[in-house]
Specification:
This protein is mainly alpha-helical. About 80% of the residues lie in helices and about 0% in strands. It starts with a helix and ends with a helix.
């Protein structure tokens, strides 16, 4: 195994571990920390920059940054209207940096699937394992909020895994 391949695997493992942490914290507290969203963005941008250095093609990094800024600008008014959380907006803005332009379609499809599953489970919380359903019914149902960071993180984990599988 070459050094760049080992570095890619290490970055992917750290990214997935951080995404799992984000999903768990968002599910339990409805918060996504700025440091976590920034770390995900930095890991994604670093991976794209490393690839750009190897291939001398910076277009992927530039396109991912443009899509990232577009996501932020489009979702920011929804945060202002209190329809989505600030952490969700920042995590969505970081998503193109993690997935890269070539993974955006897979990310979109996975996000649609995981968001539908999340919506189904929010409507039917008793289908969750007992501790999770109790937590949801006790705390989150009263607030009327949905932990949208969970499907975002799950989709990004899927994209990272697909990158190594395909």
């Amino acid at each position: 195994m070459s050094i760049p391949a080992a570095a890619q695997i290490l970055v992917a493992a750290v990214t997935m571990a951080l995404l799992l942490r984000i999903a768990w914290v968002d599910f339990t507290t409805q918060r996504i920390a700025n440091r976590d969203a920034l770390a995900i963005a930095a890991l994604g941008a670093g991976g794209l920059a490393a690839t750009a250095l190897q291939t001398a093609d910076w277009w992927s990094l530039a396109l991912a940054a443009i899509v990232s800024a577009t996501f932020f600008l489009v979702l920011f008014p929804f945060w202002l209207a209190k329809k989505v959380g600030a952490g969700d907006v920042k995590l969505m803005a970081a998503a193109p940096l993690v997935s890269g332009p070539e993974g955006l379609m897979a990310f979109s499809i996975l996000l649609l699937v995981f968001a539908a599953i999340t919506a189904f489970l929010v409507k039917n919380p008793l289908l969750l394992p007992a501790p999770a359903s109790r937590h949801y019914l006790d705390k989150l149902d009263r607030k009327g909020v949905v932990p949208f960071g969970v499907p975002i993180a799950a989709s990004l984990i899927g994209v990272v895994l697909l990158r190594f599988w395909v």
